[in-house]
Design a protein that fits this description.
By secondary structure, the chain is mainly alpha-helical. It folds into two domains: 132 residues, no CATH class; 279 residues, no CATH class.
Length: 452
């Protein structure tokens, strides 16, 4: 039997209004049981308010004058009650807001599908019950973070759509839109890692500091952890954290490569997977040893999202693209290898992005080799940082592993640059066949299809 639409909407409004009133009663018992604060009405009051909104809207659904008069009347009645609250030093308007939401349930049930009033009801329940968590979050969050969020919105939703994508910059070969898109992607990855580290794991230990910190800056995480090692007694967990930060760097570079240049990403996939596995094995070894020692949290945070930093990154990106064009044009693949080795001792992201988004006279294999060499020399830099900011006794293992990873990565890049194209293509096809085998077994693997 099908119910009349008006009857079904009326019943839905009455039920949701009544349940909201019951939830407010539970809210009062939970959060204001010992308080003398008065509450505006009971479950019946909110039920009648919802029904009243339904009836007044049905009387004049076109001009909604009668419904508006009811809204104003309830507001005026609540003002009398709110004046009493002010005399008691209370100023919350939560009850009024819930009352008005209940008053709107009738029109919502008439005008929209079932999920709209139901979603409103669930939202009311969630927000009321989340009072303690919301207060804890509001007291724990730094107000500076809202400014940072505004910067992220400015970078992505305001500046990016205004930039032209149809004209390329002379001597760079890329549009302003794509330049700023790289800034948004890198800033977004860095900002997401920072938020996860700071708010999802506020009492994180040493290991999570390296693991999550490596998603936005493995170099900064290495420096922070090396300083911690200097002040703390010997702790293998610090070594595990430092190595894990570098392992996350490889993962981050792979993600960036697949976003901006899947063809290059497929070439560096096998070497990077090897170094990720090697980092994971070393990390696991020191992590097991470190679990026997107190794992103190690290509280030092550095927000990577700054407008000044974003503009500097964009400038460095354009500069590195121009320098790379000049070097490749005049010195070929050999000059690019030397440049990548030198750039690795600075911020490698602008350089790698210039390689991924630019168009050069050399092949994809040489570009991929340059990316690998830059990652390796950056590991050597972090090894030196670990020893410099730590101490020989406490960060020597970190230094050795980072130097080893750096040396192997550089050697891999140099060998890849010297490989014939046919060998590199065969390797890629072998990787593709391996992943197809995994898929045949029902295991997930990335899409392949690289042609030699």
């Amino acid at each position: 039997m099908n119910l009349n639409a008006d009857l079904a909407n009326f019943m839905l409004t009455a039920v949701l209004s009544f349940l909201t009133g019951l939830e407010l009663k539970a809210y009062k018992i939970k959060f204001h049981e010992n308080s003398s604060e008065s509450f505006f009405g009971t479950a019946r009051t909110y039920t009648f308010t919802g029904i009243l909104g339904f009836v007044l809207y049905k009387i004049d659904p076109v001009n909604v004058v009668v419904y508006a008069i009811g809204f104003i009347s309830i507001t005026a009645l609540y003002l009398l009650f709110f004046r009493q609250l002010l005399d008691k030093g209370k100023h919350s308007i939560v009850l009024y807001l819930v009352l008005m939401l209940v008053y709107s349930l009738g029109p919502l049930s008439i005008l929209y599908s079932l999920w709209v009033p139901s979603l409103l009801f669930v939202s009311i329940l969630f927000v009321l019950n989340a009072k303690s968590r919301l207060l804890d979050f509001a007291s724990g969050i730094n107000t500076y973070e809202f400014e940072t969020l505004g910067k992220m919105i400015l970078l992505s939703a305001v500046i990016l759509p205004l930039l032209p994508d149809d004209s390329k910059i002379p001597y760079v070969g890329i549009s302003f839109y794509k330049i700023w898109l790289t800034v948004v992607v890198i800033s977004g990855i860095s900002y997401a890692g920072y938020l996860v580290q700071k708010y999802l794991f506020p009492s994180r230990g040493l290991f999570l500091t390296g693991l999550i910190g490596g998603t936005y800056s493995s170099t900064a995480s290495t420096v922070v952890l090396a300083k911690k090692a200097r002040m703390a007694p010997g702790n293998p967990m610090i070594t595990a954290a430092i190595i894990s930060a570098t392992g996350m760097m490889y993962i981050r570079l792979l993600v960036i490569a697949f976003v901006f240049n899947p063809q290059i990403a497929k070439i560096v996939l096998a070497p990077f997977l090897f170094f990720i596995l090697l980092s994971a094995l070393a990390t696991f070894y020191y992590y097991r040893a470190g679990t026997k020692i107190s794992n103190e949290p690290v509280t030092e945070d550095s927000n990577p999202l700054e407008l000044g930093t974003a503009f500097v990154f964009a400038g460095l990106f354009v500069l590195m693209m121009m320098v790379t064009h000049v070097v490749v044009l005049n010195y070929g693949a050999g000059g690019l290898k030397l440049l990548s080795l030198i750039v690795g001792f600075t911020d490698i992201d602008p350089f790698i992005l210039s390689l991924l988004t630019g168009h050069y006279v050399i092949g994809s294999q040489q570009v991929a080799a340059a990316i690998i060499i830059a990652a390796g020399s950056n590991n050597v830099l972090k090894a030196l940082y670990a020893l410099w900011f730590g101490s020989r006794e406490r960060t020597l293992a970190s230094f050795v592993w980072l130097a080893l990873l750096g040396g192997l990565t550089i050697a891999c890049g140099a060998l890849m640059a010297a490989w014939p194209a046919s060998v590199a293509c065969s390797l890629q096809q072998g990787i593709g066949q391996a992943f197809q085998g995994l898929l045949a077994l029902g295991l997930p693997g990335p899409e392949t299809g690289v042609q030699g």
